[in-house]
Amino acid sequence: MNVLINKPLEKLNVLNFKGIQMRTFHITWLTFFVCFFGWFGLAPLMPAIRADLGLTKPQVGNTIIAAVSATIFARLLVGKLCDTWGPRKTYTALLILGSLPVMFVGLAHDYTTFLLFRLAIGVIGASFVITQFHTSMMFAPKIKGTANAVAGGWGNLGGGITQLAMPLIMAAIVGFGYTKPEAWRLAMIFPGVLMLIMAFIYYRFTKDTPAGNYDEIERFAVTGEKVSFWKACADIRVWALALAYGCCFGMEITFDGVAALYFFDNFKMEETQAGFWAMLFGGMNIFARALGGIVADKVGSKYGMRGKGVLLASMLVLEGIGIMLFAQAGNLPLAILSMVTFALFLKMSNGSTYAIVPFVNPKAVGVISGVVGAGGNLGGMLMAFLFKSPSISYGQAFLYIGCIVIAAGLLLFLVNFNKAVVINPSEAEMQTA
């Protein structure tokens, strides 16, 4: 038997579906893709929901905040569970529990009940941490950044596809004779059912590591050590990455939440048209996040972790400039062009961030992935406060965010990531033991 069959892969061939490593890779990104339908399925339906429930701008802003705030705590918990319980069981449980508020949000009859459902749905965002952790387990150090970026990017693509798919599903339901208030409620059953299907597939067809599940291989028997949450976080690099992720992924989920409304209100479109342009932003994930990981791995092989840090800082500065241009776009063509520009650098920043995360402390990948992932949602939550203010327009909010992202990028130039642990082959094997 080939001994490499139970080892992390050193190459990523996305056309390969054989072996537990590649099977897990494809299942985990597809599961994350489906999770976005549950997590942000309501966003492109907000024009109809706003009219149905009579929501004010501050109330809409609160629902955007709710969508990302619960994920902060969920990501911290899920990161720890990945280290101790295993990604397979953790993802299965999250999918089953998360599907319930997605399918039952249609029972909301006023602002308060809708807000509570939106808060519960936000827990699904923790799926990202499991995706990145599980991918890290399946690939060798030299390819982790690329593998994480491709899995994360293809999963994030769900955030774009849902912007168009959910309005089309709602329109199809209306075509069967239902009203819009009925149609948006029925439409949310679709992503909930998909999540339950993926829960079965994930539990049945994946393993925690190439060598087997945690309870089969006694994960900590070889390393002999569990790194505590506080010890893992007593590292400035963890918080620098959390800040960076707050500025890139935080902006991504904020934009996912407001894009359809922004195009609907500013350019007087139908829900499906607004959803199409919002989808274009998410659609960049098909290659841009992967590009960030690929470039980061190449830069890292030549310039080390310091080079990866400089790359990430540069991408953030360019992202911020693009957001500021988008904020001042006076017509649709310019808005689309500037959106695509900042989306490219934003998603490359996402990929670059998680090309660094697995190397900060290889014995606490789950914890650190959770903290950095939570930083992304914290950033999204703070940005969302700008969009609920009655005195700040959406354009002004984007302008302020662009300035903040540039400042964060400049600060990141000062962080030295060279202290990151260099993993030799024996240590890479220990991660899966």
Automatic annotation (TrEMBL):
The organism's taxonomic lineage, starting at the top: Bacteria, Pseudomonadati, Bacteroidota, Cytophagia, Cytophagales
Membrane-protein topology: Multi-pass membrane protein
Organism: Spirosoma flavum
InterPro entries listed in its UniProt record: MFS (IPR011701), MFS_dom (IPR020846), MFS_trans_sf (IPR036259), NO3_transporter (IPR044772), NO3_transporter_NarK/NarU-like (IPR004737)
Coiled-coil blocks: none
Cell compartment(s), UniProt: Cell membrane; Membrane
Ranges where the Major facilitator superfamily (MFS) profile domain occurs: 24-420
Similarity section: Belongs to the major facilitator superfamily. Nitrate/nitrite porter (TC 2.A.1.8) family.
UniProt entry tagged with the keyword Cytoplasm: no
Main subcellular localisation: membrane
Protein name: Nitrate/nitrite transporter
